[in-house]
């Protein structure tokens, strides 16, 4: 058995060394190594090149380093009959919740207002409202969305959620489908996007969506958007427009339509935008190697792959 690593933005050799130690008796190679494509049974992948799967005729499984698989599904060389298992463990989930909680609390505490006062050396004692006065709306109620809700409950925020399929979550007002999206938005002060990227959710963070968010929310400051899912969910020109005309008060963005974010993007210079370079739920080598080494061993032993993508749903 050969495991091939195809990891953009990561140190493939270091990951390969980790897998080699965890999977004795198996061959672990990177794109830089010499290997026989006919021997590759598993590929561990992130941000695939267009030809990533060419020649891999014996693949048994595609292992995605990330929780999102939209780039894999669009890949022109991907064998359509090979299952995709995505990374989803406690470490990755906790990191996403860390990001969501940090951004929600920052906006609820009016940090844009205080940052502007600091730039002006202005001492203005405005006291933010408590967490229970703010309504946080989570778009996407999969494992990441549910864990973010679990953490936010501790702070006392009013919580609502929106997803494609109906769900019941204790202490959360849940909305379902496109017919209930406007109702969901109309009561939301802080909008958090954790949706999978599909044809239906492409560009969902647009000016029309922002204009339907709750007006006069947190301390009459206006609504906020937080996107930690995919850059394809947002229309950045609409975000800039909404931030400039007051439709949005602020935005926290971890993902972008083009990555790295181009130097000429107006988002860089906006003081009500908080930019992070796609690190909200970065996967660690230690947990990633441990997780997928077990996946491979279990699959070789005849057990099913975990977290397999439903190709019809796109996630």
Give me the CATH superfamily of the largest domain. Answer: NAD(P)-binding Rossmann-like Domain
Radius of gyration (Å): 21 Å
CATH topology of the largest domain: Rossmann fold
User: Terminal Cα separation, in Å?
Assistant: 27 Å
Oligomer: single chain
Explained architecture:
- The structure is a single chain.
- With 315 residues, this protein is an alpha/beta fold.
- The protein has 2 domains: 2-87 and 283-300, NAD(P)-binding Rossmann-like Domain (Rossmann fold, 3-Layer(aba) Sandwich); 90-275, NAD(P)-binding Rossmann-like Domain (Rossmann fold).
- Helices cover 30% and strands 17% of the residues.
- It is built from 9 helices and 12 strands.
- The protein has helices at residues 12-22, 70-74, 90-108, 111-119, 143-155, 181-186, 207-211, 236-245, 285-300; strands at residues 2-7, 27-30, 40-46, 61-64, 84-86, 135-139, 158-163, 172-176, 190-193, 224-227, 250-253, 273-275.
- It has a 7-stranded parallel beta sheet with strand order 8-7-6-9-10-11-12. Strands 2-1-3-4-5 form a 5-stranded parallel beta sheet, covered by helices on one side.
